[in-house]
Automatic annotation (TrEMBL):
The chain crosses the membrane at residues 113-132, 192-211, 217-239, 330-355, 375-392, 412-431, 451-474, 486-504, 532-551. One of its GO terms (cellular component) is membrane. Belongs to the major facilitator superfamily. Proton-dependent oligopeptide transporter (POT/PTR) (TC 2.A.17) family. It is a multi-pass membrane protein. Residues 44-556 form the Major facilitator superfamily (MFS) profile domain. It is found in: Membrane. This is Major facilitator superfamily (MFS) profile domain-containing protein.
Amino acid sequence: MEGLRGGGHGEAAVDGGDERWVEDSSVDYQGRPPLRAATGSWKAAMFIILIEFSERLSYFGLATSLMIYLTKVLQEEMKFAAKNVNYWTSVTTLMPLVGGFLADGYLGRFSTVLFSTLIYLSGLILLAISQLSPRLKPERNLHLHETLFFVAIYLVSVGTGGHKPALESFGADQFDDGHAAERVQKMSYFNWWNCALCAGVLLGVTVIVYLQEKVGWGAAAVVLAAVMAASLAVFLAGWRHYRYRVPEGSPLTPLVRVLVAAARKRHLHLPADANELYEVKPQNIKRRLLCHTDQLRFLDKAAVVEHDGGEERRGAWRLATVTQVEETKLVLAMVPIWVATLPFGITAAQVSTFFIKQGSVMDRRMGPHFTLPPASTFAMAAIGMIVAVAVYDKVLEPYLRRLTGGERGLSILKRIGVGIAFTIVAMAVAATVERRRLRSASPASMSVFWLVPQFLLMGIGDGFALVGLQEYFYDQVPDSMRSLGIGLYLSVIGAGSFLSSQLITAVDRVTSHGGAAAGWFGKDLNSSRLDLFYWLLACIGVANLVFYVVVATRYSYKTVMAGGKVVDDKAGDIECAAAAAAAAY
């Protein structure tokens, strides 16, 4: 849809100062500048949030039971099952890099959501078939069942790869950054997006897991497929209310052009006055212009105008605008932040693997007639995240806004840092609880509710860190890369899961002396030393938190010229200074 409507901008005359129209380069379903009252904002975002609810319902209904399914049904050893879960999680959370690239550059976000949801739905249908067909059941043909099972869950991975980055950024696109009220609404959007996400998680790890335990995986897969199909229909029903972005080709090309132009002009001297660097006139472009910063100054050479015999030398690969240079700086500055959040991704991977496995070997009885399914213990993390997000949005953030006078409570990177600190405490608590379980005379009689503190602390940490990461990678990337930005956020979790698998392998090899002795990971939890592994993760987290603080304090936030309009150079400097001050809050 988005790719077909690039030529409609001229169909409506829009007064640049008329707030009835949205002037952020988005278009409505007919390719015209959107009417603010009829499109976007919460009226459109609610359609989008609903399909995210159903996707998280499906994903966590599968993900949290996967460890149990692999060990009990497919008879895999605990460490191999943990590796398979981590590899699947890695693919699922790294695929959004591909999906985000395609959504931003070629397919458009709406179309990417549509196609990826259909792929996701096909995976759920195949999963149901593999469970319900008598000839495909594991007791009849384990190898064939295992093959179809993995094909089905990896189709879900591919579907998630397009669904997650495109849907979340498409939802955020419904709010205009240039409109004060909608800009504040967008800050709440990320909070309530995650509340809907957690609601899906909560039902996924309770109702869906209960169906898997008591009725069967086939029945659960049928329910998930039906819910996903219904939510897709609701998503399509809102198409007239959406604001769309027209894809403009590879979002990486402008970044490469800046690097090439800077390398070609590496011998030139930078002007003393940054206002002498090349920039387009604000009135000639609908895109937002960025303010110049002093970080990575060598890239500024890409915006130096060359003169050859009195003539200016131009060309896409020889001259870049200040905005293009600043966008390149933003992407490069994200690399240290991304690296510094990887240990958080490693700790997050433990919740759906070893935390769940711990719950499976503890006393899960809730009264004489009900036993809590192991995967349902994940609900405690979802509850922790819902509480953290709601308290932050309704209590903490308004208080901090009044205290600081800024639009935002905590800065994005501070919010992430708080979340990382909570997950470190969660690892220490998990280590203490696991040590107590191992020392218990009867480990199986220890109540599963001993795990509540570590799940809640991880949920609270996610409420700060995950929401902060989403907002950071959406807000701080160039406007043309926002789906890819969400893919970068998800890649933190994906790379963390992959690194968790590699860390398990390395720790197992070292502690078992290459298999010659008993290591930290035995065939079951009672013969393992999971408590020591948790302490190792806590120590890694503490060291990394120091690194993160150093990187975060040196980071310069994106600063946008107010309204995209600069009266003169001096006024532009004042606007940029004001924007930089606001971004620091």
